[in-house]
Amino acid sequence: MNDLLTSKPDKPMIAPSILAADFAHLADDALASLDAGADLLHVDIMDGHFVPNLSMGPALCGSLHKALPKAYLDVHLMVSDPAAYFKPFADAGADLLSFHIEVCDSEQHARDLCGVVEDLGVKTGIVINPPTDVERVLPLVDAFDLVLVMSVNPGFGGQAFIPEVLEKGRRIKPMLKDHQRLEIDGGIGPATAPQAIDAGFDVLVAGSAIYGKPRDQWSEIVRILRG
Ligand code: DX5
Ligand code: ZN
What is the pTM of this model? Predict the structure, then answer.
C-alpha cells in the first residue's frame, strides 16, 4: 500500500483533478502534472444521479494505474451508491476511496461503509458538500484517514470557490491526528489556496487551475499553490 497521505506534510500536498485534463492524453497530462511537482492524482467519479454529470469509471482508473503504477490515486466517489463501486475501484488501483456523508442514512451507516473500504486495504475519506452542516461529519472524523470539504457544489470543474466552507476546515482540523489529512476540493487556484492553507487544509485539489493552463506553466502553478 502507498502511505503517501499518512504522515503530516511540511507543506500542503497538491492533488491535480484529472477531470480537467485532456482525456485523449490522460496519462501524459497526469504524468506531466506529477513531474511538475504535484503529489497525487485526484480522480472524480460521477454517476449522473448524485451529481448531474458523468465522468469516468473503474476501467479508466485501471488504465491510469497501469500507465502510472506509482501515482497515488485519490478516488472521490460522487455517487449515490458508493458501496457498489468500492471493490471495482480498489481492484483498479485506488489508494484512497472517499464517499459523501450525504448518501449515508446514519452515523453507523458511514462507519460501516468505512469498514468495507478498510477491509479492501484502501485508505478512507468522508466528503461533505457546501450546504451540509459540519455537525454531521464531526462525530465521524475519528474513523477516516481523510476528510474532504467541498468548496463548490460537486458535478463540474471550473466553478467559483465558496469561502464559507473554510469555517468547516477550522472546526475539523483540531480534531485530526497526525496521520489524518484535511482536503479541500473546488475552485482552488493561486487566489484561493492561501485561504485554504490558513484554514488548515493540507491537501489541495486543483483541476482547471493546473490542466486549464499551458503545460509549461504547471510547475510554477504547483509551487504557487503550495504556498
Ligand atoms: C467537482 C470535483 C472537483 C473538480 C475541481 O465536482 O469534485 O474535483 O474537478 O475542479 P476545479 O479545481 O476546476 O474547481
Ligand atoms: Zn473531487
Answer: 0.98
